[in-house]
Structures are given as C-alpha cells and as structure tokens.
C-alpha cells in the first residue's frame, strides 16, 4: 500500500476548509475543533455509565464477516455499564457502533456544537457514538449512505487507514456491498496482513495512515474507505452531513434501499452462487487495475 500521513491543522477557516478539503474531497484532521466543547472534558466512561449504564447494547467482535453473515448482526449483548467495566479492565476486542446514546440521554446534545460553519446538511437527528476496547477493529468499509463525516475522538487513541472511494477495486470491494474482501487487521505490524500474495492489487492502493488522539476531529469525505484499530479503549462521535449535490444524495439512497436489499435477497436465496460470482468479479476488477497501472 502507498500510504502517507493525513494533513493535520490546529484550526481552520471555513473558506479554507471548503476550498481545500470539502470541495476536492480530501480528508483533514482538525486538532482544536472540539476542544471548546463541554464534551471535551466532560465525556468520560463514568459519566456515560451514570446516564445509560443500564441500557442493553449490541456488541461486535473482531471476526470479519463472511458471505453468509447477516448485516450488522450482533455477536453478544450486555448492558452499557457491563461493557464499560469489561473494556476498562484491559484489552478487549469488542466494540459498539451506531449506538444513538443521545436518544437515551438527550442532555448530551448540549455538550457539543454542530459545526455548521464548516458545512451544511448535518443529519441532526442522528449523531452517533462509536466505542471500542483496546485491540478492537473496525474492518475496511465505506459508509453506505455516502455522507460526509466529522469523526471526533474523545477517549483513547485509534489508528486509521483511509482510502478514497476510487481505490475500491484495488481494495477488493465486494460487489453490492460496502466491504473489502481483504483483511487489513494489524496492517501496520507487518505480520502477513494484508495478504499481498492473495490480494496483489493492494500494493497499488494510495491512502493515508495516521493516529487519532483525544480531541482530534477527522473530516472524512463521502465514500472514503476506512479501517480503524483501537490502540486504547475509547470512544468517538460521528456527525454526518448529506452531500450537497442531488446525485450524491441519490447514490446514497440507492445504496441503502436498492443495492443492500438486492444483496440481502441474494444471500438468502442463492448464497453460495452469489458469493462465488461476486468473488470472481472482485478479482477480475483488481486484475484490470493492475494491468492499467
């Protein structure tokens, strides 16, 4: 993989953000965007536990989904308090994603400010909290609704691998899905993942490799592929903004209501045939990328 650090700034003027990052679709880490928010110092495990510790939440392990895994099927359930206790005791490869903690504790919304000065179209009904224990992994994918994301890390550190959408075939994207066939687990340790022998086009993929720390906000443009590994137990919040263009909104809607439903139906009716055909397409697309390089 051809990786470089992401551009990082302490702060940024709206006009600069729009011209240099939002419009060209380039990622940037903003160090101080969230540091004036009450959440920056207020949001801690014990605080969350006092508010929603009794809520039952779905948990996900590090096992990469296969052809027959139902979408977003939880691997276990615990109360949020039990989960916090578990990941606070040491490495624990369990995470929670798309947990709308704000629905259960709406007072938390007062602890941050929507960055409307940077971009418009925020889906303000759905700020989302993402949590993970140390060693937990979010496998390579892109967000199905193709929204722009402001992802703020509040506790712990997280290593991020990021690629533009157009690198999809070098990343071995599975047709009708938002996932890569390749496994990027512990990619920075040089222990055999990703498997360049099985997935040689990965060597050509151009992306970013960096670490998010407490208070960092990542602007992740629509469609960006991302793989995240929790170096410490921690949590982050994502604020989503719809694309300004009609075509961008329509592509996101198609992914949600067309592409995903077709894939779900085929996995139920002809799972083996569907998987094998998609797999052939994956490697054919990667071979074309290598020939054109």
| Largest beta-sheet characterization | 7 strands, mixed
Mean pLDDT: 92
Can you write the helix and strand succession as a string? EEHEHHEEHEHEEEEEEEEHH
Helix percentage range: 25-40%
With strands numbered from the N-terminus, the spatial order across the biggest sheet is 2-3-12-9-14-7-6
SS-based class: alpha+beta
Radius of gyration using CA atoms only: 19 Å
According to DSSP, the number of beta strands is 14
Q: Can you tell me the CATH superfamily?
A: Cupin
What's the architecture, going by CATH? Sandwich
Q: Which residues sit in consecutive blocks of at least 5 with pLDDT less than 50?
A: none
Molecular shape: globular
CATH topology: the name is Jelly Rolls
In oligomeric terms, what are we looking at?
single chain
Distance between the termini: 14 Å
Task: Quickly count the domains.
Answer: 1
Characterization of this structure:
There is one protein chain. With 293 residues, this protein is α+β, with helices and mostly antiparallel strands. The chain has one domain: Jelly Rolls, CATH 2.60.120. Helix content is 27%, strand content 24%. The protein contains 7 helices and 14 strands. The strands form 3 sheets. The protein has a 7-stranded mixed sheet, with no helix packed on it. A 5-stranded mixed sheet has the order 1-11-10-13-8, with no helix packed on it. The protein has a two-stranded antiparallel sheet with strand order 4-5. Helix 6 crosses helix 7. It is globular and about 50 Å long. The mean pLDDT is 92.
Features:
293 residues, alpha+beta, Jelly Rolls, five-stranded mixed beta sheet, globular
